[in-house]
Amino acid sequence: MPQPPRPPTTLQRVVDKDEQLVERFPALAAPIYAAVTTNQPFDQPRTDLLYALTDTLHGHAEYDESTKDTSGDTAEQSVLTRAMGAQHRSLAARVQELKQATAGLDAVAITRTVYAVLTLTLDLERRTLQYR
Q1: How many folded domains does the chain comprise?
Q2: Which burial class, exposed, middle or buried, applies to 66 when counting CB atoms under 10 A from its CB (0-12, 13-18, 19+)?
Q3: Mean pLDDT by 10 residues, the chain (132 residues)
């Protein structure tokens, strides 16, 4: 008899959400770029992007909290888990910078940085998932 599918792990849920956000990110960022290049207010498009990022950051924080104790992990798992936590904190810091950006060009540059950090974070999460 076939085994029922296992429920996704916390890390798998984080990866799934991050994959969805990476896929949607260009469509969320484009209005910011368009507003800035046409000298229009970028507050609403930025708010929309920040709203999408909020769920991702919340998932990262939950995962990081649940993995503080790495005593039962292999050395590889422990290193990857700690690196991923640092990457999550870096992404959160970049999102905070985006919230505080007042100049359009700063918002565009930080948005691109957020996307780059998010894709790097997703790559690290996938690698960590392989060791879990």
Answers
A1: 1
A2: exposed
A3: 56 94 97 96 97 94 86 84 92 97 96 97 91 72
